[in-house]
Amino acid sequence: MKDHLQTPTLAQAEAFLREAESLNPGPWVAHSVNAARGAQIIAGRCAGLDADAAYVFGLLHDIGRRAGVTGVRHIVDGHAFLMAQGYPDAARICLTHSFQTRQIGEIYGELDWTADEARFVEDYLARAEYTPYDRLIQLCDAIALPAGFCLMEKRFVDVAMRYGTLPYTVAKWRATLAIKTEFEAAIGCSIYRLLPGVVENTFGLEVSCTSSSVG
To answer: Which CATH topology does 2-203 take?
Structure first.
């Protein structure tokens, strides 16, 4: 799968993120870095996935926020930016990371896209073939806070408290939990055994035990 991916190099991706941070600094940058770290760690345990490509996809999944403080249109801006750079696979992740159930109504945030952009996204989701990378970034987006990794349910509550719930919220949660189960079957253990700091970031604790993960 690695040979056919059209995605920036790590150096290019990091440069894109640095530029985006200078244009629109905020906690979304640390969230992106943590999503990338999670994707890299999990992909490293999955046959057929390239951990470095997974890291780049995670790093750039919210790159549309370079355009400023926006709502849902950051996915459209990210897709347009990476398509213009010549990286369609990374651009696809910008759109798909928010749509576990492929329903346009499941995305959180201000609906600040145009009607044409909304139709484009809806049509894109209907036609897109999700790859393991799409599902991996959906998973890592749901376990990465700016402070680090956490239980998925904490991230669910974090997003719901900021944006409220939607008619598709429970279906979205179920789909994300199913993706977690899929990857755990592939790696043979809980994702929380692989990711550092889950206990501390979930519960706000300083723990003295030797393991900082939960199974």
So the answer is: Hypothetical protein af1432 (1.10.3210)
